[in-house]
Amino acid sequence: YQQPDSQAEALLKEKRKQLLGDPWHFYQEPLHFERARGPWLYGVDGKAYLDLYNNVPQVGHCHPHVARAIGRQAKVLNTNTRYMYQSVLDYAERLVALTPEHIDTCIFVNSGSEANDLAVQISRVLTGQRGAIVVEDAYHGVTDATMDLSPCEGRRPDYVSYLGVPCPYRGPHAGKPDMAELYAQDADKAIVQLDQRGFKPSYFMVDTAYCSSGVVDVPEGYLAKVEAKVRAAGGLIIADEVQAGFGRLGQMWGHVARGMKADMITLGKPVGNGHPLGVVMLNKNMLAQFMETTELFSTFGGNAVSCAAGMAVLDVIENENLIANANSTGDYLRAQLRQLAQTQPLIGDVRGQGMLASVEFVTDRLSKAPASEQTGQLLELMRQQQVLIGRSGPLKNSLKLRPSLVFQPEHVDIFIAALDKSLSQLSVQ
Ligand code: PMP
Predict the structure, then answer these.
(1) Which end of the chain is more exposed for a tag (fewer CB within 10 A), N or C?
(2) ipTM value of the model?
(3) Where does ligand 1 bind, in terms of residues with CB under 6 Å?
(4) Which cofactor does it need (predicted)?
């Protein structure tokens, strides 16, 4: 490797701005990669970057089994669901075998946003209502309907009501023994608010990993209580599994790990390990009812190559025992973070489940004053040490750590050493 030519890099950045409108990134300088494998991304600077941020390559970047399956299918047949072909049925059969029993059909689309958008349409038809309940700071997608459901992006339409983040560390009921019940009362308030604005609940949509709300260890029983209240008011439950699903929380499904029953499951990111693939999963009677009103077809949704990719991802999760690894390596990650907290006072809280973790930084452990600025600096310092992490939460002082499920304790050790060094650098600044 040679040092990348700084003039060429500057030209690329300029081109990116002109051609793509300078897409969002959170580093002072965008990173430039040329290949990847497992938990590693390799830059044009010849450096290997450890990826704890990108939750799309669930089974590791560029997994050879997935790449081979895509290539093989692309050479043989790639068509859409207007025609009969075996692989879409095999894939749907395999997916529904993994879900709770009442979920037994699939609609294939191409992204998490599309899956959520479609779930909203189905809810509206099935309930005849429009009111929506989502979590404060949630993100559910980029389409017009899902943007409405993404308060972290700033919209607050009148047909949407919000539940406070049920955080055991920070928030009005943090640490109280009846936290689950107290936080769940937000659902009663949300239903009343909707009613006052002339809406009845059609659905509650929730990312059970609470990824954009700071990654929350939801109090036990909380989601079941909210579910019961929403159902009693006539609403359906949509589990947005784009972040929480496919083993991320140490079980196949996040909503199951968190004790909730869903009417619809929506999937995106990890399902194709980078190949664009989204799914809505639901009961066949619900789907039949919806199809009486709507003709459903997605050109690319469920195409033969996407199904081959999806199938291969499931092979790897099973063959490499990745859900067990998500639990053991995830536990090790959190244990190491807690140990680091003994010498790094900026660490206020360590959270997460399975291969999802978060650290909340505070300048004072008693007042819990958020170390938001320091968290931003930390991202940059970590990048200098070739470790990629993200941040989340309304106060922008929590880390979002979502490594691929192939992450091993040796990778955790590299991350912890880099974090320790970066925190020490911060404290002397
Ligand atoms: N739901 C959640 C919880 C997400 O995190 C995202 C993406 N960050 C989406 C939906 C939207 O998925 P996509 O970007 O594939 O449209």
Answers:
(1) C
(2) 0.99
(3) 111-113, 116, 139-142, 207, 211, 240, 242-243, 268-269
(4) pyridoxal 5'-phosphate
**Between β-strands 264-267 and 278-282, what pairing exists: parallel, antiparallel or unpaired?**
antiparallel
CB 139 within 8 A of CB 321: no
375-382: Cβ within 8 A, 24+ apart: 375/399, 377/426, 377/429, 378/419, 378/422, 378/423, 378/426, 379/26, 379/27, 380/27, 380/28, 381/421, 381/422, 381/425, 381/426, 382/418, 382/419, 382/422
Domain boundary among 297, 319, 341: 319
Query: d(Cα 114, Cα 133) in Å, to the nearest integer?
Result: 18
* In a shared domain, residues 125 and 194: yes
Q: What is the CA(424)–ligand 1 centre distance, in A?
A: 34
Give me the number of domains the chain comprises.
Answer: 2
| Residue 409 region by backbone torsions, left for phi larger than 0, else alpha for psi between -120 and 50, else beta | alpha
CB atoms within 10 A of CB 383: 19
Ligand 1 center to 111 CA (angstroms): 8
Instruction: Verify that 241 and 281 share a domain, yes or no.
Output: yes
- For residue 38, the 8-state DSSP code is B
Q: Are residues 228 and 350 in the same domain?
A: no
The string of pLDDT tens digits covering residues 217-230 is: 999 999 999 999 99
Domain that holds residue 127: 64-319
Residue nearest to atom 13 of ligand 1 (CA): 112
